[in-house]
């Protein structure tokens, strides 16, 4: 059984327990049992809703993506350039906390399984589509406003997101959170040198 039919409080409690388990144990060692250990309601309730780890984690990814989509809608920026940077910083937060970095490591472990788990792949594909659409829309607004050059908005979005994805992969693989800050600087330099209209370049 998936999260369909659960009340909001139960869903939130299960998702929070899943987050804590992933932070504490990483993807490989997270199981229904370790999630149940973090669940502040009865273990039987968790087992009633989910039969296995993959089913629960697929719902967890869906829940995360719904939160990300809502979060991106709250971005308020003075101009499209700042909007693009705000989207990037939602994905690559500067001064990332230890817990969130551990979670990113677990999330990368889940992404590595996407070729083998259809439910994971579906959610990661949905995530990529959402993020690329948000970046593309922001770049197109920048072109329309004269903030950006007449670039290919889709290509810019693809390049920026590929850099974000590569930064996350390298930082968690090498256990180097400082790499995130470095790649944020690289993205900003790319935007200013290749995308921003020189006559409207931010100071």
UniProtKB/TrEMBL annotation:
<feature type="DNA-binding region" description="H-T-H motif">
    <location>
        <begin position="31"/>
        <end position="50"/>
    </location>
</feature>
<dbReference type="InterPro" id="IPR009057">
    <property type="entry name" value="Homeodomain-like_sf"/>
</dbReference>
<dbReference type="InterPro" id="IPR050109">
    <property type="entry name" value="HTH-type_TetR-like_transc_reg"/>
</dbReference>
<keyword id="KW-0678">Repressor</keyword>
<keyword id="KW-0238">DNA-binding</keyword>
<dbReference type="InterPro" id="IPR001647">
    <property type="entry name" value="HTH_TetR"/>
</dbReference>
<dbReference type="InterPro" id="IPR039538">
    <property type="entry name" value="BetI_C"/>
</dbReference>
<feature type="domain" description="HTH tetR-type">
    <location>
        <begin position="8"/>
        <end position="68"/>
    </location>
</feature>
<keyword id="KW-0804">Transcription</keyword>
<dbReference type="Pfam" id="PF13977">
    <property type="entry name" value="TetR_C_6"/>
</dbReference>
<dbReference type="Pfam" id="PF00440">
    <property type="entry name" value="TetR_N"/>
</dbReference>
<dbReference type="GO" id="GO:0000976">
    <property type="term" value="F:transcription cis-regulatory region binding"/>
</dbReference>
<dbReference type="GO" id="GO:0003700">
    <property type="term" value="F:DNA-binding transcription factor activity"/>
</dbReference>
<dbReference type="InterPro" id="IPR036271">
    <property type="entry name" value="Tet_transcr_reg_TetR-rel_C_sf"/>
</dbReference>
<protein>
    <submittedName>
        <fullName>DnaJ-like chaperone fused to ferredoxin</fullName>
    </submittedName>
</protein>
<keyword id="KW-0805">Transcription regulation</keyword>
